[in-house]
Amino acid sequence: MSDSSAGGTDDGVNASSTADEPTRVAIACQGGGSHTAFTCGVLRELLKEWDDRYELVGISGTSGGAFNALAVWYGLVTEGPERAREIVGSVWDDLAASGPSDRWTNAVVTSLSRMESAGVPLPAVSPYQVPGPETGKQRIREILETHIDFEGIPDLCGRDAPELVVGTVDVNAGVFETFVDEEVTVDAVLASAAVPNLFEAVEINGHLHWDGLFSQNPPVNDLMGLPPDRKPEELWVVQINPQEFEGEPSTTEVIADRRNELSGNISLNQELHFIERVNEWVEDGTLPADKFVRTDVRRIQMGKRFHCSTKVDRDPAFLDELRELGAERAREFLAAR
């Protein structure tokens, strides 16, 4: 497996592509709350430069990454790259804290999150005991439904449309569950972002669902299950959580930060390791080349560490900073190719 990061060395087009055919690409968007505004910046920049060298065959996301994946998918299949750039940008514009009351609430929530990570004893309050979380969830629902016609999604799915995958956890069955293509409803997306200590679980098909950060973050396996002529030759992973850490975490806050990062990367690295094994089996002939394709993995990493408490920060200036950072990393990624 080739695993290149933004700004790093790229191995070029997959050997199974020809000069006359576009490289089949799948994009996986890692979750991470407000930090996934970074992914918005990445995707908008990638779409600005998108041309017939690439064919998007699938896009997946978890939590905030699901917002980005859905918005881009919907824009692409309805009108094209420019519409996709517009929708994903508008979704994040609407998610940003606006008005004095909303900004004050955002500041309080962010401060409490920082205090909690620092070990300050705070009252344990369930999201089922206070009305605020569900009010916030309703706002997200309204924002998504403003920009996405969920009833029209089934008609947009088909052979020529990229696969859309949203990751969640089935609380009752104790397994991860992905919602694919026509299964993607507004409830599925809300479930993917339902962090247990912040939001009530979302009921889908008689089972309760939580944030997909517990499982596939982001979903990769579904993207690898496409028919042979649609399997991605490259997987571009937009990675929010830093992969590496210099030194030893020693303070309460740094320890909390690193634990958060590691938990968000565990499932991703496990799935990428499996792709590595499949690549080895394709190369040594264990798997038939007419049914399996080597998939090169490219990571577009944030490359900058923010305090974990800022994953709930919707301050407009902070979200703009993240989006600009995403655009910068995407430009580095494309330049390296």
Automatic annotation (TrEMBL):
All residue ranges annotated as the PNPLA domain in the record: 27-224
Pfam families: Patatin (PF01734)
Biological processes annotated in GO: lipid metabolic process
Keywords on record: Lipid metabolism
Keyword Lipid metabolism: yes
TM annotation in the entry: none
Keyword Lipid metabolism on entry: yes
Superkingdom of the organism of origin: Archaea
Protein name as annotated: Patatin
Organism, as annotated: Halosimplex carlsbadense 2-9-1
Lineage, broadest ranks: Archaea, Methanobacteriati, Methanobacteriota, Stenosarchaea group, Halobacteria
